Amino acid sequence: MIETSQATDFKAALLADGFTGDLVVATDPEYQASLLRFAKNAQRNAAMVAFVKSAEDVSKVITLVNARSTGPGSIHVAVRGGGHSTSGSSSSEGGIVIDLSRYLNTARVDQERQLGYVGGGANWAAVDKEAIKYGLATTGGTVNHTGVGGLSLGGGLGWLMGEHGMTIDNILQVTLVTSDGSILTVNSTSHPDLYWGIRGGGPNFGCVTEFVFQLYPQRPTVFAGPLVFPPPLLPTVMDAVHEWYAGASEKEAAVVAMTSKGSTGTPLVIAIVFYNGDEEEGRKRFSKLLSLGPIVDGTRMIPYEALNSLQNGTAPYGGNYHLSGTVRGERGIKAETAIQLFDQLVEIASAPGECATDGVPVMAVVWEFFHLKKAASVASDATAYRMRVAHPASPIMIAWQTDGPEATKDAKNRILQLKQRLDEGLKDSFGGGRGKDDTGYGNYEMGNPQATDAAAPLYGENYPRLQELKAKYDPAMMFRSWYPIQPTRVVT
Ligand SMILES: Cc1cc2nc3c(=O)[nH]c(=O)nc-3n(C[C@H](O)[C@H](O)[C@H](O)COP(=O)(O)OP(=O)(O)OC[C@H]3O[C@@H](n4cnc5c(N)ncnc54)[C@H](O)[C@@H]3O)c2cc1C
User: What protein family does this chain belong to (predicted)?
Assistant: First the structure.
């Protein structure tokens, strides 16, 4: 913990050292605003927030932390990209936040080389909007206010992954500031060990101030939109989705959500479909689903840059949220299991409790049907991210209104209850449920991503190599807020 007087002293020292961004401490008028996150419950009271303008600014902060530390980890450092971690992994209680979102938040495009240069604190809206001006795009997040930083360093699942693979598969280079303050250019020939490690283990190795992404030609409009169904149709919807998915091309994808409270204020099934092509063909591909009689059919041709905003309304910035994830298998779900799970979702969401004192929380389970072949064509040891052929991811989200730690605890418990029911319920559906090594997708914050033992199961057979890398680049574990990799040689 840094005391307020110490933080003021840090601020003065950084300014004297030529720090060019903004430094905010508890006595500054904009302090509360500087702590804001996507999830209110992920906000923490940092001693100082450093809104950096460059890699050099980041390096100055890290150098000062090293100079003033009384031992490994004595000053907690967090890096904030888009600020969407619901567990608080980009926040710090009493430490220093290196915040990239105020200044390093833009994207620029090299049209000729089809490259995107993206700030470490940008969100996906910035990338999508800039790239499509040149008829280009890459795989990004499906809610476009999500940050490029955390999403890219932890994997990156999105609508375009059937054609272009995961986001990590399109990272060509990063500028990384490591725990000794070095500013490194990391790519396949410069620090190739780190290039391997940051693609999946990213937040463990430093602060990325710039990404260089491979971009691809993208048509200006796509066929996409939501189809809303009443809960009793869930089994029929899932059958239709599985039938479509079995023959889907890499240009198609869908997500199916069961939510305890949709736009009608009642439980709903929402399927969002996507075809990277024209309307006539898109309607053909999803004809079975479209014929089921949705109560709302919002499918239409939309500008490409609107695709990743289709789900923005389900997760507005600044509420209380807890995100977690599980996995689903390849086969269909039995009708009775689907109905049972939906009932359980509604029951868990509407139970009385600490997080329900200001209104009933909203819970949703999302089953993603992205085309996985391209991602799975990369070997599981080619990048730190290994879950290439594992069961597809399935995020679960709870949103609630009551502030405070007790409400957060209650909300997390509800997610745990639901996950248990899902794992049990899906054992005999969805191709047998979760596999032995199937931890799910790290960015969906499985369990507690800050726990000291969280990294080993996530990285599996890639873990020893990551531990070596951690020992080389961050032996004192300055970066330990996201599945903290334990170095092979611990510094005392
Ligand atoms: C509403 C919502 C929708 C989502 N949709 C998707 C989706 O479609 N696809 C998908 O794959 N995931 C999705 N996710 C999960 C998402 O990938 C993670 O929440 C991710 O951590 C968000 O990144 P961020 O930069 O916004 O978060 P932050 O909270 O800023 O950061 C998360 C972690 O990454 C680190 N970090 C962030 N930026 C940097 C950087 N530049 N350098 C070093 N470390 C950094 C932080 O220190 C922290 O540990 C979604 C999450 C939410 C809440």
Answer: Belongs to the oxygen-dependent FAD-linked oxidoreductase family.
The three-class DSSP label of residue 258 is strand
Ligand 1: lining residues by beta carbon, under 6 Å? 38, 78-86, 89-90, 100, 120, 141-143, 146-147, 149-151, 153-158, 202-203, 207-208, 315, 323, 443, 481-482
State pLDDT tens for residues 19-32. 999 999 999 999 99
* 433 closest CA partner among 359, 329, 282, 307: 329
Q: What is the per-residue pLDDT across 135-145, written as a single tens digit (0 to 9) for each?
A: 999 999 999 99
221-444 to CATH, choices 3.40.50.970, 3.40.462.20, 3.90.226.10, 3.40.1280.10: 3.40.462.20
Q: Which atom of ligand 1 is nearest to the CA of 85?
A: 29
Residue whose Cα lies nearest atom 28 of ligand 1: it is 83
Domain regions of the chain by residue span? 221-444
* Closest ligand 1 atom to Cα of 37: 29
SS3 80: strand
